[in-house]
Amino acid sequence: MAKTILVVEDDKNISDLLQMYLKREGYEVFAAYDGGEGVSMFSQVKPDLVLLDLMLPVLDGWGVCRAIRQQGPTPVIMLTAKGELDDKVAGLKEGADDYITKPFEMRELLARVEAVLRRGTTARQTSRRLTFDKLVIDMDSFELIVDGKKLEAPPKEMELLYCLASSPNRVFSRNELLDEVWGYEYFGDSRTVDVHIKRLRDKLEGVSDQWSLKTIWTRGYKFEVL
Amino acid sequence: MAKTILVVEDDKNISDLLQMYLKREGYEVFAAYDGGEGVSMFSQVKPDLVLLDLMLPVLDGWGVCRAIRQQGPTPVIMLTAKGELDDKVAGLKEGADDYITKPFEMRELLARVEAVLRRGTTARQTSRRLTFDKLVIDMDSFELIVDGKKLEAPPKEMELLYCLASSPNRVFSRNELLDEVWGYEYFGDSRTVDVHIKRLRDKLEGVSDQWSLKTIWTRGYKFEVL
DNA sequence: TATTCTTTTTACAAATTGTTCACGCCTTGC
DNA sequence: GCAAGGCGTGAACAATTTGTAAAAAGAATA
């Protein structure tokens, strides 16, 4: 699964350049062009990493960083201009995981991105989060973000969806799903799965054409990704 | 690079528990189950920090501490049982950087571990303060500032809120909260958590729409930040 | 020791979810 | 095209979980 990165940078040239290089590395990239947009996009996208310019309109980098920190342990790399060198310490205190001064070399930046992301998956807890087009399944905060909107879903639905989406395109039989989600000692009607699938479909209907919950006749269900 | 910690503790239950929590925080953990093993493992592993029980077979905590001190400036945190309170001063003189009395709360221990590691050698002082919209949780002065007004809250409520707010949006099960706030040796009814949550909600009701204490059905609670 | 504050337990009401059932439509094989 | 079984769907029920108040127990304080 591709890692997602949010770039918060008001200079369109720099932003475009970053986006291009990051995409070339295989990351999925989102961009915001001021602090406020950065914060709101963060909570919608839940990226794995944030690249954050310090000088921003509306809300500066510190404010954004603080807001992000308040929403979880997502790593942040600060982009600071030369003159702002003194702010380094402050930036790190606000919770940034690393910083890099502009003008930076792409190679250098990409190395740090990779380093922080690697640290993020090892040292910190394994984040139980899956991201698809217009869909975030986050089992840590136990929420579903559909097309940017937070959505509540009962435990069984969450776990069922998480299970299916953990192995995209793989078909799960009803009994497999009962084992994985309900537990191996469950002995109820396997049609129960159908009902939960139906409720998930209602919630996820027409959100994206990139993925869907498909029925495989006499076999089970799968989370299909194109 | 993950920091390494050596746990010298003869009670396997406590040792296992410590190992689990420390690993979850991203540390690399080694364990020794008596004083002699502790010393030899220390020189083999050269950990960044040692958690050292005072009462140990073969060679007691003081002896181990002395031996460690002779090999370098590695910080040591002593684990002392209640009855050994008087030994605290002696322990610190032997070169321990901090001590904590059993039964301790995981949260407290982890805070001290982090503090000692950050300082490199000396103990103390991590600012235990969290700030959100119209809410300050200050565990140093032990006060809650809600919408600019100081508010009194009993210890358990403070710690519960602090625990939840330390990892915003993360869902904590009742048992997790009992472990972290009440301590690992607490065996009361987990519904106790509910009552404290209720009292916190009464205090924090309608203060801000930026955050709230949310219930996740069959899962637990979380401090949600938008 | 008495008093006050905090914490835990208990009991009941309220809310939410999981499951089953029923009915009708759909797919498949003959 | 028909029969048989699989699937979608809506509604109802039951079981479990949680909110809440109040009493009991325990700690801290004067």
Instruction: Quickly give the structural class of chain A.
Output: alpha/beta
Give the C-level CATH assignment of the largest domain in chain A: Alpha Beta
Quaternary structure state of the chains depicted = homodimer
Bulk shape of chain A: elongated
- The level of helicity of chain A is 40-55%
The overall pLDDT of chain A, averaged over residues, is 82
| The CATH architecture of the largest domain in chain A | 3-Layer(aba) Sandwich
- For the record, give the distance between the C-alpha atoms at the N and C termini of chain A, rounded to a whole number: 13 Å
Percent of sequence in beta strands of chain A: 15-25%
Give the CATH topology of the largest domain in chain A: Rossmann fold
Summarize the structure.
The structure is a homodimer of 226-residue chains. By secondary structure, chain A is α/β, with parallel strands linked by helices. Chain A has eight helices and eleven strands.
Topology of helices and strands:
Two copies of one chain form a homodimer.
Chain A: E1 4-8, H1 12-24, E2 28-32, H2 35-45, E3 49-53, H3 61-69, E4 76-80, H4 87-93, E5 98-101, H5 106-122, E6 129-132, E7 135-138, E8 143-146, E9 149-151, H6 155-166, H7 174-182, H8 191-204, E10 211-216, E11 220-225
Parallel strand pairs in A: 1-2, 1-3, 3-4, 4-5
Antiparallel strand pairs in A: 6-7, 7-8, 8-9, 10-11
The structure holds a DNA duplex (30 and 30 nucleotides).
